Fold this sequence. Notes:
By secondary structure, the chain is mainly alpha-helical. It has one domain (8-190). Helices cover 72% and strands 6% of the residues. It contains seven helices and two strands; from the N terminus they run H-H-E-H-E-H-H-H-H. Strands 1-2 form a two-stranded antiparallel sheet. Helix 4 packs across helix 6. The longest helix is centred in the N-terminal third of the chain and has 28 residues, at 32-59. The chain is globular, with a radius of gyration of 17 Å. The termini are far apart. The chain crosses the membrane at residues 73-96, 108-130, 142-160, 172-190. It is a multi-pass membrane protein. It is found in: Cell membrane. One of its GO terms (cellular component) is plasma membrane.
Amino acid sequence: MNIFKFSEREIIDLTISVLAIAFIFTYPNFSMIVFIISLIAVGSGFIFHELMHRTVARRYGAWSEFRAWYEGLLLALILKIFLGATFIAPGAVYIYKDYLTTEENGKIALAGPITNVALAFIFLILTLGFKPNSLLWWMGKYGFYINLFLAGFNMLPIPPFDGEKVLRWNPIIWAVFGLPLIGYMIYMMFW
């Protein structure tokens, strides 16, 4: 399967998911500037995370495509609007192959959080390279925070999160990547 081929449904599902996520992260203080920052910082983290799962799965010969979970997006909107809570479950990459080894499944799972870590450091460069409180500085700061948070959240060692699959494959790799990311996530939740 071509790793760069997208079905029409996948493009629609990714587009709707990323727009919904950006809106949720900007509500209730919506402005076009904040929406664009959210779209780039959060949207890129979400899309590249999911596409990396998809790409690695395809490299292992599996069929894989992103599918939005519209009920989860609706629930996320309701939680944000009525309770002010941000919990997003936009969908997932669906993977099918007659047999995936535990190692293949672990590597597919790890690809998403590693992508978020790489993006976090790209966004960190923006904070270092631009004047504090400028638009690009804020985009960098927000992108750094949200991508490390997403990586930590996804490395939780409970199903259906990526961390559970990585831990089942290789506990040492999970500890090296997962523990610092989860620690960062917990720190940021209470900081």
